[in-house]
Specification:
31% strand; globular; three-stranded antiparallel sheet; four-stranded antiparallel sheet; alpha+beta; 16% helix
Amino acid sequence: MQNVGCKQLITFRLTINMTKDLQLIWTRHPSKEYSDRQYLDYLISGQLLREYLGIKSKSSVTPFGFFPSKEEQKRILKEFRLQQKTQLLGDRIELYICECCGDIGCGAITVKVMDRGDKIIWMHFANQNDPEEVGEEIQVDQIEFDRQSYFKAFSNIG
């Protein structure tokens, strides 16, 4: 609040976070080496998450569908569904992983997932290559999902 002559000027910042729609869509890997393989990518209200995050490299993939290990996919799915703690510092979840091996040591894009009752929030997106240390944060706004639609998006996997 500032005094401007006899009047008070009240300034405030209004942030409106509208919930976004989450879908998982089959995407063919762009490289010739993996062109016969597909994975499920995140579509957020019509925009690929990788575009929203400004990821230039198309070599990273999501943990869903690309690798043959069903056990690893089930573990990650439980983390997204908030059914078990994650293996990363601060309960972060791997959104995009290395296309060759899926190991975080090669680099990953991670996110903090918060359960706020009727909303699920993805926040503090970051680059990470160590399970115990979060790397550089990606400067984008958090994404809020309606709880029911969030869990519905992950219900058809596994």
